[in-house]
Amino acid sequence: MYKSLADAIRDAEASGRSLAQTALALESKDQGRSIDDIRSALRRALVVMRNAVERGLEGDLRSASGLVGGDALLVAKSHAGPMSGTLFSDVLARALAVQEVNAAMGVIVAAPTAGGAGVLPAVLTGLARDRKIPDERVIDALATAGLIGAVVAERASLSGAEGGCQAETGAAAGMAAGAATEMLGGTPSQVGHAVSLTMQGTLGLVCDPLGGLVELPCVFRNATGAALALAGIEMALSGIQFAIPVDEVIDVMGEIGRNMDVRYRETAGGGLAATPTGRRLAKERLVQIRTARH
Amino acid sequence: MVSLLDIIGPVMVGPSSSHTAGACRIGLLVRGLVGGTPERARIELHGSFARTGEGHGTDKALAGGLLGFRPDDERLRDALDIMEREGLDFSFEKTTLSDEAHPNTVRLTVERAGQTATVIGSSLGAGRIRLSEIDGYPVELTGHLPTIVLVAADQPGSVARIAGILAEKQVNLATMRLTRKERGGDAFMVIECDEPPGDPARDAIADLDWVHWVRALDKVGG
């Protein structure tokens, strides 16, 4: 796959194709698989994503510690918020839903990781429903998201243990923003700006889960990651051009991750995990997991 | 080379690709080494597996893998109950293996139909795994391809003979690694194949009188 989004954007523009088509053609060549075969794998991923959204919105799932679950339904049913009933609120609920399913050992697509699995389905399926976008275009968007994620994996990292949450929900938000921008008719260059405009807002984000579990704040950070993606899409489709090239934004995310103290890289040694309440909850809830078992 | 489908995937039971999906894959490979679900398993968790394994369902995922469930199988959630219902004796404990061990490491000692195996495996992140030791032999087994493992007397020509059998059976080799505990002792061979080797190839290798033991392992991911 491409190691530079600038290269992918240049190739797409030169050939008059979308980034999705450009990425699918290269993946087909790299892996020796037909484009139809790759698209059917992506179609299966989309089915799992939609199922996870629906399952989470039922609202009855709880995580191993009991710390998360049921909040997706709270947002979906709410009439109290300033954006209740809008696309924005629907996308938030979908992100929470998938991540609640993940925390409760349900089936998700790790895209790019399990800890950041809520962002991409929330943004893509939320927009697809709102704009009545056919599945084939959502599948194209998944290919574009895969291209963006592959470039991030190559140039920076997709692991919270290596790069903090900017490498998980931050990368997921960049992938979702770029993919959705193309799905909504944006040009390859606008896709690049959507990724930059979104990821600039997640630079430095630490990975600080209570007790080291993929629960809190992970569930909520998927929702705020999806919100940032919507902001990036809105700005890019309005024509905003971010001055720092997208590959450089991705590079600096990797650099910040490498310089990030180990306490902020999935070790539960810093951030929210190390607050007095974070420590107390982690201790109490881990005991609870053990008692529930025996 | 990063594949687009590595990024949009895998489909898995949550919550963690390393602590859940990777742990399940380790269980699946170990199951393959004894040819089916073990009756007894002593499972020793090291590092982050010991510290956060319970909250991540690492114990359920390992047990589920030993039961033959794949990383996307929802039965993983109930694997400990299923294990008890089937009367299997799997026990879990925490340990410290060594300072150099990867943070997500487990040692499994399993027994099935009179056969035993002791295996050290690590989950490297994003669901990728590596078994690093089998019955005291240093190995490198990732399960990303169908794999033949065998123990044979270490004698001249053994590698060529086995490669010859696989060529006769039209099995294309990806990698072949041989390790031994000492010179002239038995050797452990790990042979990764591009496609499943099939029973005839495995049986032909097992028929060699200097081969003590052979198993064909299904690919478990990637």
* Rg of chain B, nearest Å: 17 Å
Strands of chain A, count: 1
Named at the architecture level, the CATH assignment of chain A is Orthogonal Bundle
Q: How is the biggest beta sheet of chain A arranged?
A: none
Stretches of chain B where pLDDT is under 50 for at least 5 consecutive residues are none
> What is the CATH C level class of the largest domain in chain B, in words?
Alpha Beta
Q: Explain this structure to me?
A:
The complex is a heterodimer of chains A (294) and B (222). Chain A is mostly helical. Chain A has one domain (5-293): 2-methylcitrate dehydratase PrpD. Helices cover 64% and strands 1% of the residues of chain A. Chain A contains 13 helices and one strand. Chain A has helices spanning 5-15, 19-31, 35-57, 71-77, 87-103, 119-131, 135-155, 160-163, 169-183, 188-199, 218-237, 246-259, 276-293, and one strand at 107-109. Chain B has 222 residues and is α+β, with helices and mostly antiparallel strands. Chain B folds into two domains: 4-135, 60s Ribosomal Protein L30, Chain: A; 147-217, Alpha-Beta Plaits, CATH 3.30.70. Chain B has seven helices and eleven strands. Chain B has helices spanning 4-7, 17-33, 48-56, 58-67, 79-85, 158-168, 198-206, and strands at 11-13, 40-47, 89-95, 104-112, 115-125, 128-134, 137-141, 147-153, 173-180, 186-193, 211-217. Chain B has a six-stranded mixed β-sheet. In chain B, strands 9-10-8-11 form a four-stranded antiparallel β-sheet, sandwiched between helices. Chain B is globular and about 50 Å long. Strand 1 (107-109) of chain A pairs antiparallel with strand 1 (11-13) of chain B, so a sheet runs across the interface.
Features:
heterodimer, A: 294 residues, mainly alpha, 2-methylcitrate dehydratase PrpD, 13 helices, 64% helix, 1% strand, globular, B: 222 residues, alpha+beta, 60s Ribosomal Protein L30, Chain: A, Alpha-Beta Plaits, 2 domains, six-stranded mixed beta sheet, four-stranded antiparallel beta sheet, 7 helices, 30% helix
